[in-house]
């Protein structure tokens, strides 16, 4: 455990050294300062957006170039091509990434557990970390199970809302033959 905290402190030092090289006079602990700990975890989660980006890239690769060529012939500019071709044809991918992001956001655990341990002052103790603590630290399995079911219901409700709203903004190319 002590090795983990030394690595975290070294990361804080590296961030501060980088900012000082840019001309900022910074000597704060980003992870252990209550005002910046949550923002540090948010930046960490943004850093982990790579899988969704690969899915977006796969969706972009599936849009036929002939659609863009036809739009250029019709006189469309870049913004019009983006709004009228790219977004509608990418909307199923956006929908998928939105649903997966909502589920992953509610289940945030790893960054809080590994990086901060819920510190400082409980500022980064997410719901799932509290559930874990109730189950495996305090051995309150019944309460933790109830918390897990409650989280399941909340995630299901948000997912149903996104699915219900998808009819108005997700475009599925239908085959008319």
List strands and helices in order, with pairings.
Layout: H1 2-21, H2 37-47, H3 50-61, H4 65-73, H5 78-106, H6 110-116, H7 127-137, H8 141-165
Helix pairs in contact: 2-6, 3-5, 5-8, 7-8
Please state roughly what percent of the residues sit in beta strands, choosing from under 5%, 5-15%, 15-25%, 25-35%, 35-45% or over 45%: under 5%
Indicate the structural class. mainly alpha
User: Secondary-structure element order, as H and E?
Assistant: HHHHHHHH
Mind summarizing the main beta sheet?
Answer: none
Instruction: Please report the distance between the alpha carbons of the first and last residues.
Output: 64 Å
For CATH, the homologous superfamily of the domain at 47-168 is named as MetI-like
Gyration radius, to the nearest Å? 22 Å
- What general form does the structure show? flat
Q: In total, how many beta strands?
A: 0
CATH class of the domain at 47-168: Mainly Alpha
Under CATH, the topology of the domain at 47-168 is which? MetI-like fold
Mean pLDDT: 85
- Identify low-pLDDT runs: none
Helix content: over 70%
CATH architecture verdict of the domain at 47-168: Orthogonal Bundle
């Amino acid at each position: 455990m002590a090795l983990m905290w030394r690595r975290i402190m070294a990361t804080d030092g590296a961030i501060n050294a980088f900012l000082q090289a840019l001309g900022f006079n910074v000597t704060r602990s980003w992870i252990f300062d209550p005002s910046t700990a949550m923002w540090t975890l948010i930046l960490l989660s943004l850093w982990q957006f790579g899988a969704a980006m690969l899915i977006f890239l796969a969706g972009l690769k599936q849009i036929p170039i002939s659609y863009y060529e036809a739009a250029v012939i019709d006189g469309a500019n870049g913004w019009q091509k983006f709004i009228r071709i790219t977004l509608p044809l990418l909307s199923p991918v956006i929908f998928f990434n939105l649903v997966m992001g909502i589920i992953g956001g509610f289940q945030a655990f790893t960054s809080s557990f590994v990086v901060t341990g819920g510190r400082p002052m409980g500022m980064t103790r997410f719901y799932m970390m509290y559930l874990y603590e109730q189950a495996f630290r305090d051995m309150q399995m019944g309460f933790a199970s109830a918390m897990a079911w409650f989280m399941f219901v909340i995630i299901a409700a948000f997912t149903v809302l996104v699915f219900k709203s998808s009819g108005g903004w997700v475009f599925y190319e239908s085959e008319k033959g």
